[in-house]
Specification:
The chain is elongated and about 55 Å long. Helix 1 (about 10-25) packs across helix 2 (about 30-35) and helix 2 crosses helix 3. Strands 2-3-1-4 form a 4-stranded antiparallel sheet. It has helices at about 10-25, 30-35, 40-55, 85-95, 120-130, and strands spanning about 70-80, 100-105, 110-115, 135-140. It is an alpha+beta fold.
Amino acid sequence: MIILDRSRTADDIDAALLRALIANPDATNLALAEATGLARNTVRARLARYAAEQSLRSFERRIDPAYLGFPLEAFILTTVKQRNLSTISVTLADVPEVIQVHGLAGVADLLVHVVARDADDLYRIAGRILDIDGVRRTTTGLVMGEFVEHRIAQLIGAA
């Protein structure tokens, strides 16, 4: 499980820099400095801090799985034996088609986000997850469309 220190929040300088990065994720430090009116050293220092704090997510989030041959997406609600949670998490990480796992409270224990090549592949993946020692039950929901893309920009400056 990934646990990060989330005690520090963005200030006005961070907000300006983050907006510039959203507008142009591939911008150089110089371009970011020009776009924000910040000194290059300030930009460089903030970017280094973001990296150290893991405040920015990986480039992987920008890659469409369909481009890699995995056009189907599904969410698998998974109920597990709690004492096996650590082992189950490690085993799920070994399944290449598992792209994200969230721990839940309520309806199930885990929300497993998977991608698949086709329906038969999804059936195989869901079966592989169900076969993990300690997994009690799964319910698979096929993603039929995305109505709101992953987004963060609307939160900048809202806090």
